[in-house]
Amino acid sequence: MTHAYDDTNIFAKILRGEIPNDTVLETEHSLAFRDITPKAAVHVLVIPKGAYVTYDHFAREASNAQIADFTRAIAEVCRREGLEEGGYRLISNAGEAGLQEVPHMHVHILGGQALGPLLAG
Ligand code: 5GP
């Protein structure tokens, strides 16, 4: 998979403050905000502030500080959203097979309800 980053994507615009978002958490290297079309009672997207296309791109090329910040941001969102007790699901779609819609690396945090099977149909 190529990792050429297109900075016209919608999450790049959110990071530049060009379009609004419903922020849940902002850290030095990461931003968490509510998905505009929530698929569960809680649906938060966590993105790195750096220009990474997919999870593997981020995991390979981001600094240890960026990776630690991102991982801990996920934990903090789970805590703030009250998901630790009832559980949750993390999803990171990548590329064509993953049906990635926005080419800026992100992890979906889904919870607040029973989520059903991992893959539908
Ligand atoms: P993907 O399929 O790339 O993993 O998911 C992209 C997600 O971004 C989708 O769940 C979609 O609803 C969400 N999304 C797309 N545009 C916007 C936007 O402008 N603001 C927010 N908050 N979420 C968006």
Automatic annotation (TrEMBL):
Which top-level group of life is the source organism from?
Answer: Bacteria
Which Pfam families does the record associate with it? HIT (PF01230)
The residues forming a coiled coil are: none
Record-linked InterPro entries: Histidine_triad_CS, Histidine_triad_HIT, HIT-like, HIT-like_sf
Q: Where is this motif: Histidine triad motif?
A: 104-108
Q: List, for all copies, the residue spans of the domain called HIT.
A: 10-121
Q: Which PROSITE patterns match?
A: HIT_1, HIT_2
* Protein's name according to its UniProt entry: HIT domain-containing protein
Q: Native species of this protein?
A: Tropicimonas omnivorans
